[in-house]
Sequence to fold (285 residues):
Amino acid sequence: MEYYVALSGEKVGPLTQYQLVGMLRDGEVTAEDKVWHAAAADGWQQISEEPSLASALAGLERERERREGLPDEDGAAPDSAERSDAPRDPYAPPRSDSAAHTDSVRARPFSRFLARWYDYMLVMTAVVFFSGVEIPEPEQGMTTAQMREMYIEMAEDPSYQKFAITLYICLFAWHALEGALIALGIPTPGKALMGIRVASRDGSVIPMFKSIYRSFLVYILGVGLFYPLIAVATMILAFFILMSKGSTQWDKWLGMEVRHSPMTFGRILLVVGAFLALMTLQSLI
Fold:
């Protein structure tokens, strides 16, 4: 089911239930804001009165009570271990029903793609630099047949074969490193650039093994082991799942979420500058 929310006189949507609940959790919308969906017989109504969101609102209320140490609806105080024993992510902003923090869990597939591609570009630049292999570029005026012949010759050259194997190994190793960095609360260069952070949905610290496991699920299901045709298919599939469900399959399975800082004008300039600088560096190697 897709929802639309009325915010400041504008209709925002379509939103999946997961996305709408994330906005409620982050304080981007409140239970008093009005919502509409195609099956709504009564038209626009307050989120608190929308039957299809009743269980989600109850879950958010339980989350708030656990955070604040309030007694449950039976009058019993929540178990102290539930409140304090689970380690909290020191890098996670406190979950609040106010708009105090600006991170958002709304799906932003292009931001995630750019962050990951920037990291891959860094790895590829490092491999090219340390391997000393010179990657030929098509000359102006070359026909398609000539370019195909050039790339076939590259594929048959032992030095380029060694380079390709090294690149695959380094990209594989990068995913292990990425998982370790996420567990330590350290963003990769691409994630830092795009204002992206991977967090546990309950705010607890992500275990190292779980974080590395997530990175390799991305390696398999997100980029298809870097095999060209498989990679294209898996990226397209992941894109549509993210847009329709508000979360990728691996994050849903592992209870994680990807949080985004606001994409301000200054950040956009930083992203453009970073990519231009990296492409310039690649052209000089």
About this structure: The radius of gyration is 23 Å. The longest strand covers residues 10-15. Residues 78-102 have pLDDT under 50 and may be disordered. The CA atoms of residues 271 and 277 lie 10 Å apart.
